[in-house]
Input
Amino acid sequence: MSVRVVEVEDGRSLADYDGHLLLEPAAAWLRARADKVLPSLRGRRVWMINSAAEGGAVAEMLPHMVALLRELGVEIDWAVVESDRPEFLDLTKRIHNLLHGAGEPRLDAADRELFESVNRANGEELASLLGPRDLVVIHDPQPLGMAPQIRELGLPLAWRCHIGLDRVNEATRVAWGFLEGYLALVDHSIFTAPEYVPGVLRYKSSLIRPALDPLSDKNRDLRPVEVGSVLAEAGLAGIDASGRETPARVERLQPDGAWLPASEAPPIGFLYRPLVVQVSRWDRLKGFLPLLEGFATAKSAAAGGELEAARLVLCGPDPYSVADDPEGVETLEQVAARFGELDPALQADVAILKLPRNALLVNAIQRASTVVAQNSLQEGFGLTVAEAMWKGVPVVASAACGIRQQIDDGVEGRLVPNAEDPAGIAAVLAEVLNDPEG
Ligand code: UDP
Output
C-alpha cells in the first residue's frame, strides 16, 4: 500500500495547439475559462488521485492534463494510490466489471471490510500530503473508499468516473449499492455520458465527454515514411531492419504457443495486406475471442475480394509484465488456445502480438490498418474508436453503449449489433473489406 506523488513530464504546451486550425479555439476557450476560475483556486492545491501511474486511459490522460493546468496557473499534483494486495485488486476489478453489468452480482461484508481497510490505510497516508484548503479529485472507484477521511479533513471532494453502462441490471445495482455511502460524501461528480449517472449523484454531476489529444504520440500526424520506419523498427514491416535499434520489441504468438520477436516470424503484411486490427488491453470485455471467431467465419466464406487476402491482428500490452492483471493473462491465454486450434491456413492469416508500451507504435499500427476493430462487449467510451476516426481509418466496432454514442452505423463507421455473434461480425467485416468504395 502506498501513496506516491507522480512526477509529471510532458513536453507539450498550450502554445502547441495555437497553430492548429481545429484546436486553436479550444486552447483560447481554456485560457478564458482559466482566467475566470483561477481567483477561486488561489492558495489551494488540486489533487488528482487515481490507482495507477501506468496502463489504462486515465493514467494516460492525467500527465498531460496536469501539465496543461499548471501552465494555466493551477497548483495541481497527481498522486497514485496503489495496493499490492492481490485480493484488493481482484475486488476492485470485480467492482469495475459489475459497473459494466458483468460478473456475479455479489459483494459481501468481507469485500466491504477489505475495501475499507486498504482505503483507510491509504487515506491516512494521503492526508499527510493535503493542505487545509486543498481540493481532491478522485478518479474511478478504486480510491473512492478514502472519501470519509477526505471529508473529515473538511476538504471539497469531486469524483470523476470514467466507466458506466446505460442499463441497470443486478450487477450494476450491486456495484452502485456498494459505492453509495461514499458517493453520498462527494460534493460533485463527473461522468462521460448522462446515462451512466446513478440516482444518488443525479443532482450533483456534470459531463466531460472523453477526448483524445491530437498532438500526442498516439495520435499526431505521421508521414507514410514515418509509419513505415516505426513498423520496421518494431519488426512489423516484414523487411530486414537488422542493424537498427529496436526500441519497440513486439512479440508474436507462434502456432506451438511460443512467443517469438515479431521480426523473426513470417511477415504479417503491414503496408501491403488488408489488415483488420484491434489494439486493446487483454480484457474479456474487449471481445477479442468473438472477433477471432467472426474473422474465421468471414474467411471461411471468402470468395475473392479483399477478404481473401485480409489478415487479423490482435494486439495488446504484455499482461505478464503487469503484476495486477490476472484477468489479462487469462484472456490472452484463451485467445492463444483458440489460435492454436485454428487450421494452419487460417493461422497464417491471424497475428497475435504483445506490444511494448509505446504510443508511437500504436499510432503507426492504427494508421497502417485497413480496418480498426473494437469488438467490446461493454465500453464506457471506445478510445481506440476515436483514435481510428481521428486518423481517418475505417472502424468496425460493436454496438456497446459508449461506442453507439460515437458511431452512427454507416456514417462514421460500421457497428456490429452483437459483439458475441461471430456470424454478425463476419457479415460486417466482409461488407467493409469488399466494398471498393470504402
Ligand atoms: N493501448 C495501448 N497499447 C496497447 C493497447 C491499448 O496504448 O497495447 C491504448 C489504446 O490505444 C487506447 C487505450 O490504450 O488509447 C485504451 O483505452 P480504452 O478506453 O479503449 O480502454 P480502457 O483500457 O480504458 O478500458
